[in-house]
């Protein structure tokens, strides 16, 4: 038996994780939904479902449709709202031995500042992840994250408005991800995470109507993994802050592709729906890979891509 | 609720495009209630990607869990080709089941098509009680024999759209006829079937002030309440519009909580 230990701990700016595997926002509820199926204490971090200042009911159904090796969703950022999360969701999460990252989104730049401020001094929240993929009502509904200047202003608001480490989650639906990545780095982000879902749609040819009531939605799952991996690699080469890789990770080998490309950590999303224990199996798979390759520290393989 | 690998005990065709599948799982068998469902991963790999939800149609003995399903797409087509002895991952039991009726109420069971699955389980746990079971199918070849599925001899009234068996018409015709003939009987109604059928059933019983529970259907990604993909428009207990999630607010809900106008 191999008694050597592998150090899986990683650092995302001021945030330290015991391993690089988190569960992605919107795919894991507020944690409790999975408690009877998954040992949550083994996770690197839980990123909770995106929160807004007030509760949001979400979009009309149908909200999801399966597509080849993936799924489209248009949930509409439904959530219980900031207050209910702090009063009802967070006390339970505090009892876990894992980092809790709160994903936030606003409808205006000022709302992001208010959200960051609301988490000031709140115990049990290790970092904020800022969703800038949602529509900016002040800007004709274009996503905040499609414009480098707006992305930077949102980032600055959260950094200055709160006291938690700030991760900015980028949308892939842009011309050049490197420009956005640099803009949020310069605005003070501690780390970036990418990719959020790719915009997509599906049509029922019998009814000639969209399969989602919202017409279009966000594509996730293994179908988007090569796109995600390329954008993560581009971002890693554009910024100095840590990058968190997200997009269609189903297995430990998928996760390692992102880590070798330079991601310091990864998030597991759609896989949680298919296999609730996916993230745990990924952690074990990475550990086994390191043991077999004689790697003592996960940091030794981050960005080890040979070209 | 558990996640576990199970072995298919049997998977047999019982009507046109309709299959009965059974697997042994003592944990699910011991805790399942009529109306609850399971999420099956019909195939490993990424195509199809998501699990599929299936109502439990009956429990046999201490450990045999049965589902009844119709082939409607890729997931159910793959499942229909699965052989005895093959293994797959199951999560369950999930969701809220039916609240059983009080002893002084006559249970009216109303099912349309493959919606008969959870209703059969309900009939199974009420064995011995005086129930009225009405079912509707498109045509006689899609009819389900309760004796074959849950090993229970129950009298079912049957309607077929094309008149090839039973009453020529719909299950809501059967329901109307029953209620007209028994205007004074105090009853509780339990229904599962296509949304438009449920809508008709609910409009009938609302006028007559009969308590009604419906089992809803929706595509789902997780079945656990996390993805929120299975929303239906509904009312809160305070009467405000909100969304119910079929997976954990349902699948069985009191009919008056659903916003039927949105369907």
Structure description:
The complex is a heterodimer of chains A (307) and B (263). By secondary structure, chain A is an alpha/beta fold. Chain A has one domain: Aldolase class I (TIM Barrel). In chain A, the strands form four sheets. In chain A, strands 3-4-7-8-9-10-15-16 form an eight-stranded parallel barrel, surrounded by seven helices. Chain A has a four-stranded antiparallel β-sheet with strand order 5-6-14-11, with no helix packed on it. In chain A, a hairpin with a 2-residue loop joins β5 and β6. In chain A, α3 runs parallel beside α4 and α4 crosses α5. The radius of gyration of chain A is 18 Å and the shape is globular. The model of chain A has no long low-confidence stretch (mean pLDDT 96). Chain B is α/β, with parallel strands linked by helices and 263 residues long. Chain B folds into three domains: 93 residues, Translation factors (Elongation Factor Tu (Ef-tu), domain 3, Beta Barrel), CATH 2.40.30.10; 116 residues, Rossmann fold; 46 residues, Dihydroorotate dehydrogenase B (pyrk subunit), domain 3. In chain B, the strands form three sheets. Chain B has a seven-stranded mixed β-sheet, with helices on both faces. A six-stranded antiparallel β-barrel of chain B has the order 1-2-5-4-3-6. In chain B, a hairpin with a 2-residue loop joins β1 and β2. In chain B, α5 runs parallel beside α6. The radius of gyration of chain B is 18 Å and the shape is globular. The model of chain B has no long low-confidence stretch (mean pLDDT 94). Classes of the chains: A alpha/beta (307), B alpha/beta (263). At the A-B interface, β5, β6 and α7 of A face β13 and β14 of B.
């Amino acid at each position: 038996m191999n008694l050597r230990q592998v150090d899986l701990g990683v650092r995302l700016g001021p945030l330290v994780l015991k391993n690089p595997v988190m569960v992605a926002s919107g795919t894991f509820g507020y944690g409790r939904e999975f408690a009877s199926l998954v040992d949550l204490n083994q996770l690197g971090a839980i990123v909770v479902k995106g929160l807004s200042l007030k509760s949001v009911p979400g979009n009309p159904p149908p909200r999801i449709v399966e597509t080849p090796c993936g799924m489209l969703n248009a949930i509409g950022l439904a959530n219980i709202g900031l207050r209910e999360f702090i009063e009802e969701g967070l006390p339970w999460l505090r009892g876990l031995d894992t980092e809790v990252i709160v994903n936030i989104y606003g409808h205006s730049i000022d709302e992001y500042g208010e959200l960051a401020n609301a988490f000031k001094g709140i115990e049990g929240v290790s970092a904020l992840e800022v969703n800038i993929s949602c529509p900016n009502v002040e800007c004709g509904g274009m996503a905040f994250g499609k414009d480098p200047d707006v992305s930077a202003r949102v980032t600055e608001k959260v950094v200055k408005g709160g006291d938690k480490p700030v991760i900015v989650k980028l949308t892939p639906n842009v011309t050049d991800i490197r420009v956005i990545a640099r803009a949020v780095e310069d605005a003070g982000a501690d780390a970036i995470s990418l990719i959020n879902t790719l915009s997509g749609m599906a049509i029922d040819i019998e009814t000639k109507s969209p399969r989602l009531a919202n017409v279009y939605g966000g594509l996730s799952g293994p179908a988007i993994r090569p796109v995600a991996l390329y954008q993560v690699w581009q971002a890693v080469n554009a910024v100095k802050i840590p990058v968190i890789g997200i997009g269609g990770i189903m297995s430990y080998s998928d996760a390692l592709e992102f880590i070798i490309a330079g991601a310091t950590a990864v998030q597991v999303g759609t896989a949680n729906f298919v296999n609730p224990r996916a993230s745990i199996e990924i952690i074990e798979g990475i550990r086994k890979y390191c043991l077999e390759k004689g790697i003592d520290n996960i940091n030794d393989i981050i960005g080890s891509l040979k070209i | 609720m558990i996640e576990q690998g199970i072995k298919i005990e049997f998977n047999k065709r019982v009507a046109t495009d309709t299959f009965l599948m059974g697997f042994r799982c003592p944990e699910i068998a011991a805790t399942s209630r009529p109306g609850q469902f399971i999420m099956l991963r019909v195939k490993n790999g990424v195509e199809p990607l998501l699990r599929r939800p299936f109502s439990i149609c009956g429990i046999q003995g201490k450990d045999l869990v049965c589902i009844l399903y119709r082939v409607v797409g890729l997931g159910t087509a793959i499942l229909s080709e699965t052989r005895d002895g093959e293994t797959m991952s199951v999560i369950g039991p999930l969701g809220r089941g039916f609240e059983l009726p009080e002893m002084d109420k006559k249970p009216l069971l109303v099912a349309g098509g493959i919606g008969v699955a959870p209703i059969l389980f309900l009939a199974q746990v009420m064995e011995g009680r005086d129930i009225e079971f009405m079912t509707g199918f498109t045509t006689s070849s899609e009819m389900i024999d309760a004796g074959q599925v849950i090993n229970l001899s129950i009298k079912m009234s049957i309607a077929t759209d094309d008149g090839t068996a039973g009453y020529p018409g719909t299950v809501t015709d059967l329901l109307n006829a029953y209620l007209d003939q028994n205007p004074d009987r105090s009853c509780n109604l339990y229904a599962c079937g296509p949304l438009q059928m449920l809508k008709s059933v609910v409009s009938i019983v609302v006028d007559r002030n009969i308590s009604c529970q419906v089992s809803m259907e929706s595509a789902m990604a997780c079945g656990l309440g996390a993805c929120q993909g299975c929303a239906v428009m509904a009312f809160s207990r305070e009467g405000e519009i909100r969304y119910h999630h079929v997976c954990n607010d349902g699948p069985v809900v009191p009919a008056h909580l659903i916003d039927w106008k949105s369907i």
